[in-house]
Amino acid sequence: MKSTTDFVKARLAEFGWIIIPDCNADYFIILMVSLGKPVGMALVGAFDEEGRGSRRDTDLPMHRDGVYSAQLAKVQGGFYVEQPGIDFVGLYCICDSEERCVTLVGDQEIEMKGGQVLIFDNNRYLHGRRGPVGSRLLIRMWIQKVPEEKTNATKE
Ligand SMILES: [Fe+2]
């Protein structure tokens, strides 16, 4: 686990994002917690007709989690209190949709597949979404960096 965590951290430090294929939800959560302190966890899918974009079948403009833009508020129909200080956003795809739903991270366009993990640096890249969410279901975790000596990754 330590070597995987080190690899993921190095990749995030260098490129600001990483995709891990063929993961599972348990491992995803353990990996995310090794990156810092979890400050939020949610299911992302098409559940509601109004409210937060992460629960609706709607495109999302480029934004940064924890920082509510006027553009995002316009799409979502209101302002929401979000945890500030989100350093990493991790997404685990429980199941993908038959329709093409694209996750945008900077200029990357990623069509997430079931079992895939996407982690990106929330400070370095804006992100968004384009296309129908349909039956796609994600777990989203928000992580706040903590001093290295306090992370689970370095605990023996
Ligand atoms: Fe977001």
Walk me through this protein's architecture.
This protein has one domain (2-145): Double-stranded beta-helix, CATH 3.60.130.10. Helix content is 20%, strand content 31%. The chain has 3 helices and 9 strands, in the order H-E-H-E-E-H-E-E-E-E-E-E. The protein has helices spanning 2-15, 25-34, 70-76; strands at 17-20, 37-44, 60-63, 88-95, 102-105, 108-110, 117-121, 127-130, 137-144. The strands form 2 sheets. It has a 5-stranded antiparallel beta sheet, with helices on one face. It has a 4-stranded antiparallel beta sheet with strand order 3-8-5-6. 28% of the residues are buried. The structure holds fe (ii) ion.
Topology:
Elements: H1 2-15, E1 17-20, H2 25-34, E2 37-44, E3 60-63, H3 70-76, E4 88-95, E5 102-105, E6 108-110, E7 117-121, E8 127-130, E9 137-144
Antiparallel strand pairs: 1-7, 2-9, 3-8, 4-7, 4-9, 5-6, 5-8
This protein binds fe (ii) ion.
Residues 63, 65, 127 line the site of fe (ii) ion.
CATH architecture: 4-Layer Sandwich
* Gyration radius over CA: 15 Å
Count of helical regions: 3
Strand order of the largest sheet: 1-7-4-9-2
Ranges where pLDDT stays below 50 over 5 or more residues in a row are none
CATH C-level category: Alpha Beta
Report how far apart the termini are.
Answer: 12 Å
Tell me the β content: 25-35%
Number of strands: 9
- The fourth-level CATH homologous superfamily is Clavaminate synthase-like
Ligand catalogue: fe (ii) ion
> What is the count of structural domains?
1
Q: What is the fold named in CATH at topology level?
A: Double-stranded beta-helix
- Strand pairing plus helix content: what structural class? alpha+beta
Q: Tell me about the biggest sheet?
A: 5 strands, antiparallel
Mean pLDDT: 92
Q: Helix and strand string, N-terminal first? A: HEHEEHEEEEEE
Shape: globular
Helix content: 10-25%
